[in-house]
Each structure stands twice: as C-alpha cells, then as structure tokens.
From TrEMBL:
This is Dephospho-CoA kinase. Keywords: ATP-binding, Coenzyme A biosynthesis, Cytoplasm, Kinase, Nucleotide-binding, Transferase. Gene3D superfamilies: P-loop containing nucleotide triphosphate hydrolases. Pathway: Cofactor biosynthesis; coenzyme A biosynthesis; CoA from (R)-pantothenate: step 5/5. It catalyses: 3'-dephospho-CoA + ATP = ADP + CoA + H(+). The keyword Repressor does not apply. It is found in: Cytoplasm. Signal peptide: none annotated. The keyword Cytoplasm applies. InterPro entries: Depp_CoAkinase, P-loop_NTPase.
Length: 200
C-alpha cells in the first residue's frame, strides 16, 4: 500500500528545500510545477490550446512557451486566468495521476506530491498526510524579495494573490517550521520520515 504525502506551502516558504530532503531519503517526488512545464512543451496539446486561446505572441522564437508574456496577459485579468487554468489544470492533473498510478503499481511505500496549490485544487483528497512548509510573513517577504529581486509591493502582491498561509496551516496535518536554519528543517523532516516509516 503506497502512502501519498502531499507537500505544499506559500511562495518562498522553502517548500523546495523540504522536497529535496524527501528525495535524499529516497522518497520519489511528483513535482506539479515540473509537470506543468511538461504539458506545455513544443508539440503538446497544452501548448496548442494556449496558442489557440492567447495567440502566437505567447511563443518564444524557438517555439517554447513565453511564460513572462503569458503571465502579463493573465495576471490582472480573471477571465484570461480562468481560461488558462481550464486548459492547463486537467492536463496537469491527468499527468500527475498517471505518474502516481505508475509508482503505486511498482509498490513503492511512499510517494510525495509536491503541489503548490494542493488545497486549492482539492488534491489533498488524494493524500494520506499533508505537510506544509510553514514560514512567518516577514521571513516569507524577505526571501521572496531576495529570490526574485523584486520590490516589497510586488512581493506582497504575489503573496496576497495566494490562499493565506494561515488557512493552509489550519488544513495541514503536519507543519514544518521553515523559519530557522537548514539543519533545523532537516531535523523536523527526519522526524516525519521516521514517523511515516514506522506506520507501515
């Protein structure tokens, strides 16, 4: 019986760090962001549908998706954003389901679903346990400004566009406190891995 661990977090909350630690201990990770890129590769149905809806201006000269151009078209336009979600979401979900089914067929004991919008998309229903990368607003803001070289106003806009981290904390089964050092995060993840492994 494969245990499915759902991993999520807000932007710049350190979710990728936790995901990488899971990989180090041998837990396979299905990365929703990576899957989202795969379903819009050149020649894919996803890219064809996006071009059909938004026009060829969303393509780079080499035929790949220009995410910056697409982002600028949909970010402040709820209708366009909804249209994009309706194209991408079913394709991403189908690809994730296919990967998950493959891992389950192999009889792997644990699989991690790394999904930024785990609760928003209802994918937490697929999970036996949900894990949140928790971080306070001040640390999140500082990390995002540093990571993306953006202003405080731009960073706040991106943070506020997401489900509040407090709401995610209420829904999560386990919260990894990601405000401290990498060593502190590793210790918390190690405890979680041990706990899950003992439940087999």
């Amino acid at each position: 019986m494969t245990k499915v661990i759902g991993l999520t977090g807000g932007i710049a909350s350190g979710k990728s760090t936790i995901s990488n630690i899971f990989k180090e201990v041998g837990w396979p990770v299905i990365d929703a962001d990576q899957t989202a890129r795969q379903v819009v590769m050149p020649g894919s149905l996803g890219l064809a549908q996006i071009v059909s809806r938004f026009g060829s201006q969303v393509l780079q000269p080499d035929g790949t998706l220009d995410r910056a151009a697409l982002g600028s078209m949909v970010f402040d336009d709820p209708k366009s954003l909804s249209d994009l979600d309706q194209i991408e979401h079913p394709l991403i979900m189908a690809a994730i389901d296919k990967q998950l089914a493959s891992f389950k067929k192999q009889g792997l004991p644990v699989v991690v679903l790394d999904v930024p919008l785990l609760f928003e998309t209802g994918m937490d229903q697929e999970c036996d346990l949900t894990v949140l990368a928790g971080v306070d607003r001040k640390t999140q803001l500082e990390r995002l400004m540093k990571r993306d070289h953006c202003t405080k106003a731009a960073a706040l806009k991106r943070i506020n566009a997401q489900m509040p981290l407090e709401e995610k904390m209420r829904r999560a089964d386990v919260i990894i406190d990601n405000n401290g050092s990498l060593a502190q995060t590793r210790l918390q993840v190690a405890r979680l891995v041990e706990r899950v492994s003992q439940q087999k």
